[in-house]
Amino acid sequence: MSTVVLDNVTKVYPGGYLAVDRMNLRAEEGEFLVLLGPSGCGKSTLLRMIAGLEEITAGDLWLGGKLANHLAPRDRDVAMVFQNGALYPHRTVRGNLSFPLEIAKADPALVKERVVELSRALHIDETLDRRPGTLSGGQRQRVAMGRAIVRQPSLFLMDEPLSNLDAGMRTELRMEISSLVRALGVTTIYVTHDQVEALTLADRIAIMNRGVLQDIGTPAQVYNDPATAFTAAFLSSQQLNLLAATVRTPQNQFILLDFGTHQITMPWTDPRAYAVSQHTGMQIIVGIRPDALMPVPERTEGPTFFGRVRTLEYHGHEWLAYLEAGIPAVHVPEPPDRRRGHVNGSQAGMNGKARSMMRRLLSSSAAEEEEVAGPAPSAASGTHRRADLIVRLGSRPVWRAGEHGRVAVDVSRLMLFTQTGARIDPPRR
Ligand SMILES: Nc1ncnc2c1ncn2[C@@H]1O[C@H](COP(=O)(O)OP(=O)(O)O)[C@@H](O)[C@H]1O
Ligand SMILES: [Mg+2]
Protein backbone atom coordinates (compact mmCIF):
# COMPACT_ATOMS: atom_id res chain seq x y z
CA MET A 1 0.00 0.00 0.00
CA SER A 2 1.29 3.43 -0.76
CA THR A 3 0.58 7.12 -0.70
CA VAL A 4 1.62 9.27 -3.64
CA VAL A 5 2.54 12.93 -3.17
CA LEU A 6 3.42 15.30 -5.99
CA ASP A 7 5.06 18.51 -4.84
CA ASN A 8 5.32 21.06 -7.66
CA VAL A 9 6.15 18.30 -10.13
CA THR A 10 7.02 19.79 -13.52
CA LYS A 11 8.00 18.34 -16.88
CA VAL A 12 9.69 20.24 -19.66
CA TYR A 13 10.35 18.09 -22.73
CA PRO A 14 13.41 18.51 -24.91
CA GLY A 15 12.38 21.23 -27.32
CA GLY A 16 11.02 23.28 -24.46
CA TYR A 17 7.45 22.08 -24.15
CA LEU A 18 6.08 22.52 -20.65
CA ALA A 19 3.90 19.41 -20.45
CA VAL A 20 3.22 19.38 -16.69
CA ASP A 21 3.30 22.62 -14.75
CA ARG A 22 3.87 22.60 -10.97
CA MET A 23 1.48 19.77 -10.18
CA ASN A 24 0.53 19.34 -6.53
CA LEU A 25 -1.59 16.44 -5.43
CA ARG A 26 -1.81 13.60 -2.98
CA ALA A 27 -3.31 10.14 -3.45
CA GLU A 28 -4.18 8.53 -0.13
CA GLU A 29 -3.45 4.92 0.70
CA GLY A 30 -5.99 2.67 -1.07
CA GLU A 31 -7.51 5.60 -2.93
CA PHE A 32 -8.79 5.38 -6.53
CA LEU A 33 -7.69 8.69 -8.00
CA VAL A 34 -8.65 9.53 -11.59
CA LEU A 35 -6.62 11.99 -13.67
CA LEU A 36 -9.02 13.51 -16.19
CA GLY A 37 -8.34 15.91 -19.04
CA PRO A 38 -8.40 16.35 -22.81
CA SER A 39 -5.92 14.66 -25.09
CA GLY A 40 -2.47 16.24 -24.86
CA CYS A 41 -2.95 17.86 -21.43
CA GLY A 42 -0.07 15.91 -19.85
CA LYS A 43 -1.81 12.96 -18.18
CA SER A 44 0.46 10.24 -19.58
CA THR A 45 3.52 12.37 -18.90
CA LEU A 46 2.50 12.68 -15.26
CA LEU A 47 1.81 8.96 -14.93
CA ARG A 48 5.12 8.07 -16.56
CA MET A 49 6.98 10.34 -14.13
CA ILE A 50 5.32 8.50 -11.23
CA ALA A 51 6.31 5.16 -12.79
CA GLY A 52 9.89 6.34 -13.31
CA LEU A 53 9.69 6.09 -17.11
CA GLU A 54 10.11 9.84 -17.58
CA GLU A 55 12.53 12.14 -15.78
CA ILE A 56 11.06 14.79 -13.47
CA THR A 57 12.34 18.22 -14.53
CA ALA A 58 11.57 19.93 -11.23
CA GLY A 59 9.61 19.31 -8.06
CA ASP A 60 9.44 16.23 -5.84
CA LEU A 61 7.69 12.88 -6.01
CA TRP A 62 7.08 10.96 -2.77
CA LEU A 63 6.00 7.31 -2.82
CA GLY A 64 4.98 5.78 0.50
CA GLY A 65 6.69 8.66 2.30
CA LYS A 66 10.01 8.23 0.47
CA LEU A 67 11.50 10.70 -1.98
CA ALA A 68 11.31 8.83 -5.29
CA ASN A 69 12.55 11.27 -7.98
CA HIS A 70 15.57 9.13 -8.77
CA LEU A 71 14.35 5.66 -7.85
CA ALA A 72 14.66 3.12 -10.68
CA PRO A 73 11.25 1.98 -12.00
CA ARG A 74 11.75 -1.56 -10.64
CA ASP A 75 12.34 -0.16 -7.14
CA ARG A 76 9.04 1.74 -7.06
CA ASP A 77 6.79 -1.29 -6.64
CA VAL A 78 4.33 0.04 -9.22
CA ALA A 79 2.49 -1.78 -11.99
CA MET A 80 1.29 0.02 -15.05
CA VAL A 81 -1.42 -0.84 -17.58
CA PHE A 82 -1.41 0.96 -20.92
CA GLN A 83 -4.05 1.64 -23.54
CA ASN A 84 -2.74 -1.23 -25.68
CA GLY A 85 -1.86 -3.67 -22.93
CA ALA A 86 1.26 -5.08 -24.58
CA LEU A 87 1.43 -8.83 -23.93
CA TYR A 88 4.13 -11.40 -24.72
CA PRO A 89 2.79 -12.76 -28.03
CA HIS A 90 4.50 -16.15 -27.79
CA ARG A 91 3.35 -16.92 -24.27
CA THR A 92 -0.10 -18.21 -23.45
CA VAL A 93 -2.44 -16.24 -21.23
CA ARG A 94 -1.22 -18.42 -18.36
CA GLY A 95 2.38 -17.64 -19.29
CA ASN A 96 1.68 -13.92 -19.44
CA LEU A 97 -0.04 -13.90 -16.07
CA SER A 98 2.61 -15.96 -14.32
CA PHE A 99 5.60 -14.13 -15.79
CA PRO A 100 5.88 -11.36 -13.14
CA LEU A 101 5.76 -13.99 -10.39
CA GLU A 102 8.35 -16.21 -12.10
CA ILE A 103 10.69 -13.22 -12.32
CA ALA A 104 10.14 -12.67 -8.61
CA LYS A 105 11.04 -16.38 -8.10
CA ALA A 106 7.77 -17.21 -6.41
CA ASP A 107 6.94 -20.79 -5.42
CA PRO A 108 5.59 -22.53 -8.60
CA ALA A 109 2.64 -24.12 -6.77
CA LEU A 110 1.64 -20.72 -5.46
CA VAL A 111 2.03 -19.17 -8.93
CA LYS A 112 -0.27 -21.77 -10.42
CA GLU A 113 -2.93 -21.21 -7.78
CA ARG A 114 -2.74 -17.41 -7.99
CA VAL A 115 -2.99 -17.38 -11.79
CA VAL A 116 -6.07 -19.59 -11.80
CA GLU A 117 -7.72 -17.53 -9.07
CA LEU A 118 -7.03 -14.26 -10.85
CA SER A 119 -8.13 -15.55 -14.25
CA ARG A 120 -11.49 -16.46 -12.70
CA ALA A 121 -11.90 -13.00 -11.20
CA LEU A 122 -11.17 -11.49 -14.62
CA HIS A 123 -13.39 -13.98 -16.52
CA ILE A 124 -10.49 -15.24 -18.65
CA ASP A 125 -10.11 -18.68 -17.07
CA GLU A 126 -11.32 -20.30 -20.31
CA THR A 127 -8.52 -18.66 -22.29
CA LEU A 128 -5.54 -19.70 -20.14
CA ASP A 129 -3.97 -21.89 -22.82
CA ARG A 130 -4.47 -19.47 -25.71
CA ARG A 131 -2.04 -16.95 -27.14
CA PRO A 132 -2.83 -13.20 -27.08
CA GLY A 133 -3.25 -13.12 -30.89
CA THR A 134 -6.38 -15.25 -30.62
CA LEU A 135 -8.10 -13.05 -28.00
CA SER A 136 -10.59 -10.20 -28.39
CA GLY A 137 -9.56 -6.66 -27.40
CA GLY A 138 -11.50 -6.91 -24.16
CA GLN A 139 -9.86 -10.22 -23.25
CA ARG A 140 -6.40 -8.83 -24.01
CA GLN A 141 -7.01 -5.88 -21.69
CA ARG A 142 -8.14 -8.27 -18.98
CA VAL A 143 -4.89 -10.22 -19.34
CA ALA A 144 -2.89 -6.97 -19.21
CA MET A 145 -4.77 -5.97 -16.09
CA GLY A 146 -4.20 -9.39 -14.56
CA ARG A 147 -0.49 -9.26 -15.27
CA ALA A 148 -0.29 -5.90 -13.47
CA ILE A 149 -2.33 -7.11 -10.52
CA VAL A 150 -0.77 -10.56 -10.09
CA ARG A 151 2.21 -9.58 -7.96
CA GLN A 152 0.18 -7.18 -5.82
CA PRO A 153 2.14 -3.96 -6.24
CA SER A 154 1.81 -0.99 -3.88
CA LEU A 155 0.54 1.23 -6.66
CA PHE A 156 -1.42 0.72 -9.88
CA LEU A 157 -1.02 3.16 -12.71
CA MET A 158 -3.53 2.79 -15.53
CA ASP A 159 -3.29 4.87 -18.69
CA GLU A 160 -6.62 4.86 -20.56
CA PRO A 161 -6.92 1.06 -20.31
CA LEU A 162 -10.43 1.01 -21.78
CA SER A 163 -10.23 3.57 -24.55
CA ASN A 164 -9.61 1.04 -27.35
CA LEU A 165 -12.63 -1.08 -26.46
CA ASP A 166 -16.15 -0.73 -27.79
CA ALA A 167 -18.80 0.89 -25.60
CA GLY A 168 -20.38 -2.26 -24.19
CA MET A 169 -17.07 -3.86 -23.27
CA ARG A 170 -15.90 -0.58 -21.75
CA THR A 171 -18.87 -0.44 -19.38
CA GLU A 172 -18.45 -4.07 -18.39
CA LEU A 173 -14.73 -3.85 -17.75
CA ARG A 174 -15.17 -0.52 -15.96
CA MET A 175 -17.34 -2.15 -13.32
CA GLU A 176 -14.92 -5.04 -12.98
CA ILE A 177 -11.87 -2.82 -12.59
CA SER A 178 -13.70 -0.90 -9.92
CA SER A 179 -14.62 -3.92 -7.84
CA LEU A 180 -11.31 -5.72 -8.36
CA VAL A 181 -9.13 -2.75 -7.45
CA ARG A 182 -11.27 -1.90 -4.46
CA ALA A 183 -11.19 -5.47 -3.22
CA LEU A 184 -7.37 -5.39 -3.37
CA GLY A 185 -7.25 -1.98 -1.67
CA VAL A 186 -4.25 -0.91 -3.76
CA THR A 187 -3.72 2.81 -4.37
CA THR A 188 -4.62 3.45 -8.01
CA ILE A 189 -4.04 6.37 -10.33
CA TYR A 190 -6.20 5.99 -13.42
CA VAL A 191 -5.88 8.25 -16.46
CA THR A 192 -8.79 8.97 -18.80
CA HIS A 193 -10.22 11.67 -21.07
CA ASP A 194 -13.75 10.31 -20.57
CA GLN A 195 -15.78 12.19 -17.97
CA VAL A 196 -18.26 9.35 -17.47
CA GLU A 197 -15.43 6.94 -16.68
CA ALA A 198 -14.00 9.47 -14.22
CA LEU A 199 -17.31 10.16 -12.48
CA THR A 200 -18.22 6.48 -12.17
CA LEU A 201 -14.84 5.10 -11.08
CA ALA A 202 -13.15 7.69 -8.92
CA ASP A 203 -12.92 8.28 -5.20
CA ARG A 204 -11.55 11.65 -6.26
CA ILE A 205 -10.95 13.24 -9.67
CA ALA A 206 -8.02 15.52 -10.52
CA ILE A 207 -8.81 17.56 -13.64
CA MET A 208 -5.97 18.85 -15.83
CA ASN A 209 -5.78 21.21 -18.76
CA ARG A 210 -2.58 22.14 -20.62
CA GLY A 211 -0.41 20.69 -17.89
CA VAL A 212 -2.14 22.66 -15.12
CA LEU A 213 -4.25 21.16 -12.33
CA GLN A 214 -7.72 22.71 -12.59
CA ASP A 215 -9.57 21.07 -9.75
CA ILE A 216 -9.53 18.09 -7.41
CA GLY A 217 -12.34 16.59 -5.37
CA THR A 218 -14.93 13.83 -5.16
CA PRO A 219 -17.05 13.32 -8.30
CA ALA A 220 -19.96 15.17 -6.66
CA GLN A 221 -17.72 18.07 -5.56
CA VAL A 222 -16.11 18.69 -8.93
CA TYR A 223 -19.40 18.23 -10.80
CA ASN A 224 -21.68 20.34 -8.60
CA ASP A 225 -19.17 22.79 -7.21
CA PRO A 226 -16.40 23.11 -9.85
CA ALA A 227 -13.39 25.31 -9.05
CA THR A 228 -12.91 26.52 -12.62
CA ALA A 229 -14.96 27.16 -15.77
CA PHE A 230 -12.87 24.52 -17.50
CA THR A 231 -13.92 21.86 -14.98
CA ALA A 232 -17.57 22.89 -15.22
CA ALA A 233 -17.50 22.69 -19.03
CA PHE A 234 -15.46 19.48 -19.24
CA LEU A 235 -17.77 17.61 -16.85
CA SER A 236 -21.02 18.72 -18.49
CA SER A 237 -22.74 15.99 -20.46
CA GLN A 238 -24.51 18.58 -22.58
CA GLN A 239 -22.58 21.66 -23.65
CA LEU A 240 -22.39 24.19 -20.80
CA ASN A 241 -23.82 27.66 -21.46
CA LEU A 242 -20.98 30.10 -20.73
CA LEU A 243 -22.26 33.67 -20.82
CA ALA A 244 -20.66 37.09 -20.36
CA ALA A 245 -22.30 39.33 -17.74
CA THR A 246 -21.43 42.61 -16.07
CA VAL A 247 -21.93 42.84 -12.30
CA ARG A 248 -23.91 45.88 -11.10
CA THR A 249 -25.14 46.84 -7.63
CA PRO A 250 -27.76 49.56 -8.27
CA GLN A 251 -28.10 51.72 -5.13
CA ASN A 252 -26.75 48.74 -3.24
CA GLN A 253 -30.26 47.22 -3.22
CA PHE A 254 -29.38 43.94 -4.87
CA ILE A 255 -26.89 42.45 -7.29
CA LEU A 256 -27.69 42.66 -10.96
CA LEU A 257 -26.10 40.28 -13.46
CA ASP A 258 -26.38 42.30 -16.64
CA PHE A 259 -26.38 40.11 -19.76
CA GLY A 260 -27.12 43.05 -22.10
CA THR A 261 -30.47 41.94 -23.46
CA HIS A 262 -31.40 40.31 -20.13
CA GLN A 263 -30.85 41.00 -16.45
CA ILE A 264 -30.97 38.62 -13.52
CA THR A 265 -31.07 39.84 -9.93
CA MET A 266 -29.43 38.14 -7.01
CA PRO A 267 -30.55 39.19 -3.51
CA TRP A 268 -28.03 40.15 -0.82
CA THR A 269 -29.20 37.10 1.10
CA ASP A 270 -27.60 34.85 -1.53
CA PRO A 271 -24.50 33.22 0.04
CA ARG A 272 -22.46 34.28 -3.01
CA ALA A 273 -23.59 37.91 -2.94
CA TYR A 274 -20.59 39.41 -1.17
CA ALA A 275 -18.02 37.61 -3.35
CA VAL A 276 -19.86 38.66 -6.53
CA SER A 277 -20.23 42.28 -5.37
CA GLN A 278 -16.44 42.53 -5.29
CA HIS A 279 -16.65 42.42 -9.11
CA THR A 280 -19.05 45.37 -9.44
CA GLY A 281 -18.52 47.11 -12.78
CA MET A 282 -16.54 44.16 -14.14
CA GLN A 283 -17.34 41.46 -16.61
CA ILE A 284 -17.62 37.93 -15.30
CA ILE A 285 -18.46 34.53 -16.81
CA VAL A 286 -21.70 32.85 -15.83
CA GLY A 287 -22.00 29.09 -16.37
CA ILE A 288 -25.47 27.54 -16.67
CA ARG A 289 -26.09 23.86 -17.31
CA PRO A 290 -28.88 23.23 -19.83
CA ASP A 291 -30.95 21.52 -17.13
CA ALA A 292 -30.84 24.63 -14.90
CA LEU A 293 -33.05 26.39 -17.49
CA MET A 294 -36.69 25.35 -17.33
CA PRO A 295 -39.26 26.13 -20.06
CA VAL A 296 -42.10 28.18 -18.54
CA PRO A 297 -45.27 29.98 -19.78
CA GLU A 298 -44.81 33.42 -21.27
CA ARG A 299 -46.11 35.45 -18.31
CA THR A 300 -43.92 33.86 -15.64
CA GLU A 301 -42.55 36.09 -12.84
CA GLY A 302 -39.01 35.89 -11.51
CA PRO A 303 -35.67 35.45 -13.27
CA THR A 304 -36.17 34.34 -16.89
CA PHE A 305 -34.46 34.38 -20.29
CA PHE A 306 -36.39 34.41 -23.55
CA GLY A 307 -35.82 34.25 -27.27
CA ARG A 308 -36.69 32.54 -30.53
CA VAL A 309 -36.36 28.77 -30.64
CA ARG A 310 -33.89 28.31 -33.47
CA THR A 311 -33.82 24.55 -33.54
CA LEU A 312 -34.63 21.42 -31.60
CA GLU A 313 -32.39 18.39 -31.32
CA TYR A 314 -33.50 14.84 -30.51
CA HIS A 315 -31.05 12.86 -28.36
CA GLY A 316 -33.11 9.73 -27.76
CA HIS A 317 -33.57 10.10 -24.02
CA GLU A 318 -34.18 13.86 -24.22
CA TRP A 319 -34.72 16.90 -26.44
CA LEU A 320 -32.43 19.92 -26.45
CA ALA A 321 -33.51 23.35 -27.68
CA TYR A 322 -31.33 26.18 -29.00
CA LEU A 323 -32.77 29.53 -27.96
CA GLU A 324 -31.64 32.80 -29.57
CA ALA A 325 -31.58 35.13 -26.56
CA GLY A 326 -28.97 37.59 -27.85
CA ILE A 327 -26.67 37.00 -24.87
CA PRO A 328 -22.93 37.14 -25.56
CA ALA A 329 -21.26 33.80 -24.97
CA VAL A 330 -17.61 33.13 -24.20
CA HIS A 331 -15.22 30.28 -24.78
CA VAL A 332 -13.72 28.37 -21.89
CA PRO A 333 -10.69 30.34 -20.67
CA GLU A 334 -7.52 28.29 -21.19
CA PRO A 335 -4.09 28.53 -19.63
CA PRO A 336 -1.62 29.78 -22.25
CA ASP A 337 -0.05 27.20 -24.55
CA ARG A 338 3.58 26.87 -23.52
CA ARG A 339 5.26 25.48 -26.58
CA ARG A 340 8.52 27.32 -27.05
CA GLY A 341 10.35 26.93 -30.34
CA HIS A 342 13.29 29.06 -29.29
CA VAL A 343 14.37 27.05 -26.26
CA ASN A 344 17.29 24.75 -26.98
CA GLY A 345 15.85 21.43 -26.03
CA SER A 346 18.86 19.22 -26.65
CA GLN A 347 19.99 19.97 -23.11
CA ALA A 348 16.66 19.49 -21.40
CA GLY A 349 17.65 16.11 -20.06
CA MET A 350 20.42 17.74 -18.02
CA ASN A 351 19.02 18.79 -14.75
CA GLY A 352 20.77 22.12 -14.09
CA LYS A 353 20.14 23.35 -17.62
CA ALA A 354 16.58 22.09 -17.54
CA ARG A 355 15.96 23.99 -14.35
CA SER A 356 17.22 27.26 -15.74
CA MET A 357 15.25 26.68 -18.91
CA MET A 358 12.17 26.07 -16.85
CA ARG A 359 12.70 29.30 -14.93
CA ARG A 360 12.78 31.13 -18.25
CA LEU A 361 9.66 29.36 -19.39
CA LEU A 362 7.79 30.00 -16.19
CA SER A 363 8.70 33.67 -16.05
CA SER A 364 7.62 34.25 -19.64
CA SER A 365 4.40 32.31 -19.17
CA ALA A 366 3.64 34.35 -16.05
CA ALA A 367 3.80 37.47 -18.21
CA GLU A 368 1.52 35.78 -20.70
CA GLU A 369 -0.93 34.90 -17.95
CA GLU A 370 -1.15 38.56 -16.98
CA GLU A 371 -2.02 39.38 -20.54
CA VAL A 372 -4.78 36.81 -20.46
CA ALA A 373 -6.01 38.02 -17.07
CA GLY A 374 -6.54 41.49 -18.51
CA PRO A 375 -9.30 42.09 -21.01
CA ALA A 376 -9.44 38.52 -22.38
CA PRO A 377 -11.59 36.66 -23.14
CA SER A 378 -13.41 39.81 -24.20
CA ALA A 379 -14.79 41.16 -27.42
CA ALA A 380 -11.36 42.64 -28.11
CA SER A 381 -9.73 39.22 -28.34
CA GLY A 382 -12.48 37.99 -30.63
CA THR A 383 -13.62 35.18 -28.37
CA HIS A 384 -17.06 36.69 -27.93
CA ARG A 385 -19.86 35.36 -30.02
CA ARG A 386 -23.61 35.41 -29.68
CA ALA A 387 -24.49 31.80 -29.23
CA ASP A 388 -27.77 30.15 -28.52
CA LEU A 389 -28.81 29.17 -25.04
CA ILE A 390 -28.98 25.40 -24.81
CA VAL A 391 -32.04 24.25 -22.90
CA ARG A 392 -32.90 20.73 -21.83
CA LEU A 393 -36.53 19.97 -22.58
CA GLY A 394 -36.77 16.43 -21.25
CA SER A 395 -38.53 13.62 -23.08
CA ARG A 396 -41.13 15.83 -24.84
CA PRO A 397 -40.41 18.77 -27.15
CA VAL A 398 -42.56 21.44 -25.50
CA TRP A 399 -41.59 24.00 -28.17
CA ARG A 400 -41.53 24.12 -31.95
CA ALA A 401 -38.76 25.71 -34.00
CA GLY A 402 -39.50 29.40 -34.73
CA GLU A 403 -41.65 29.85 -31.63
CA HIS A 404 -40.95 32.28 -28.83
CA GLY A 405 -39.65 30.45 -25.76
CA ARG A 406 -39.12 31.51 -22.16
CA VAL A 407 -37.07 29.72 -19.50
CA ALA A 408 -36.91 30.18 -15.74
CA VAL A 409 -33.33 30.53 -14.48
CA ASP A 410 -32.42 28.64 -11.32
CA VAL A 411 -30.23 31.37 -9.79
CA SER A 412 -28.88 29.03 -7.12
CA ARG A 413 -27.38 26.89 -9.89
CA LEU A 414 -25.58 29.70 -11.70
CA MET A 415 -21.82 29.12 -11.61
CA LEU A 416 -19.85 32.35 -11.38
CA PHE A 417 -16.30 32.69 -12.71
CA THR A 418 -13.78 35.47 -13.24
CA GLN A 419 -12.65 36.19 -16.77
CA THR A 420 -9.72 33.82 -16.35
CA GLY A 421 -12.12 31.04 -15.39
CA ALA A 422 -11.56 30.85 -11.59
CA ARG A 423 -14.59 30.52 -9.33
CA ILE A 424 -15.73 33.79 -7.76
CA ASP A 425 -17.31 32.20 -4.67
CA PRO A 426 -14.83 29.64 -3.35
CA PRO A 427 -15.84 26.00 -3.91
CA ARG A 428 -16.34 23.92 -0.76
CA ARG A 429 -13.67 21.21 -0.47
N1 LIG B 1 8.76 12.82 -25.71
C1 LIG B 1 8.14 13.99 -25.91
N2 LIG B 1 8.80 15.06 -26.41
C2 LIG B 1 8.18 16.25 -26.60
N3 LIG B 1 6.88 16.48 -26.31
C3 LIG B 1 6.17 15.45 -25.83
C4 LIG B 1 6.74 14.15 -25.61
N4 LIG B 1 5.77 13.35 -25.12
C5 LIG B 1 4.65 14.09 -25.05
N5 LIG B 1 4.89 15.36 -25.47
C6 LIG B 1 3.91 16.46 -25.51
O1 LIG B 1 3.49 16.74 -24.20
C7 LIG B 1 2.10 17.00 -24.16
C8 LIG B 1 1.41 16.08 -23.19
O2 LIG B 1 1.45 14.77 -23.70
P1 LIG B 1 0.80 13.54 -22.93
O3 LIG B 1 1.32 13.51 -21.54
O4 LIG B 1 0.98 12.34 -23.75
O5 LIG B 1 -0.75 13.99 -22.90
P2 LIG B 1 -2.07 13.12 -22.61
O6 LIG B 1 -1.66 11.80 -22.07
O7 LIG B 1 -2.86 13.94 -21.64
O8 LIG B 1 -2.78 13.00 -23.93
C9 LIG B 1 1.60 16.85 -25.59
O9 LIG B 1 1.51 18.12 -26.18
C10 LIG B 1 2.68 16.03 -26.26
O10 LIG B 1 2.77 16.35 -27.63
MG1 LIG C 1 -2.03 9.87 -22.83
UniProtKB/TrEMBL annotation:
GO terms for molecular function: ATP binding. Keywords: ATP-binding, Nucleotide-binding, Transport. PROSITE patterns: ABC_TRANSPORTER_1, ABC_TRANSPORTER_2. Residues 4-235 form the ABC transporter domain. The keyword Nucleotide-binding applies. PANTHER family: MALTODEXTRIN IMPORT ATP-BINDING PROTEIN MSMX, OSMOPROTECTIVE COMPOUNDS UPTAKE ATP-BINDING PROTEIN GGTA. SMART domains: AAA (SM00382). This is Sugar ABC transporter ATP-binding protein. It comes from Microbispora corallina. Residues 373-382 have a biased composition (Low complexity). CDD domains: ABC_MalK_N (cd03301). The lineage of its organism: Bacteria, Bacillati, Actinomycetota, Actinomycetes, Streptosporangiales. Residues 362-383 are annotated as: Disordered. It holds the Pfam family ABC_tran.
